[in-house]
Recover the amino acids of this structure.
């Protein structure tokens, strides 16, 4: 389901709730650059700041969910963590 939001520059944008984490981080980086440029009006700066807070909270929620999933997958039967060294994907996995 797409939501229509007012962008800090005053234009409307279509956003989906299923934006991936990397896209969220990229949006945050662009917002920071625009805020640091000093070219935005006070109202646009406040709107960009509000959008940045929303994106930051969304990114933190995603990180928390990912951590919970990792803990669930690595938790031992007695409830303790079964820690093991991380090994990247096998060579054949990367060639797909």
């Amino acid at each position: 389901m797409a939501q229509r939001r007012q962008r800090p520059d005053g234009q409307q944008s279509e956003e989906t709730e299923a934006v991936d984490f990397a896209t969220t981080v990229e949006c945050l980086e662009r917002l920071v650059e625009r805020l640091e440029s000093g070219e935005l009006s006070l109202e646009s700066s406040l709107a960009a700041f509000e959008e940045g807070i929303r994106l930051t909270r969304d990114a933190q929620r995603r990180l928390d969910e990912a951590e919970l999933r990792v803990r669930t997958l690595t938790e031992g039967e007695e409830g303790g963590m079964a820690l093991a060294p991380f090994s990247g994907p096998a060579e054949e996995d990367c060639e797909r």
Q: What stands out?
A: The CA atoms of residues 12 and 27 lie 15 Å apart. The two ends are 31 Å apart (CA to CA). The helical segments are 21-37, 42-74, 91-94. The beta strands are 2-6, 12-16.
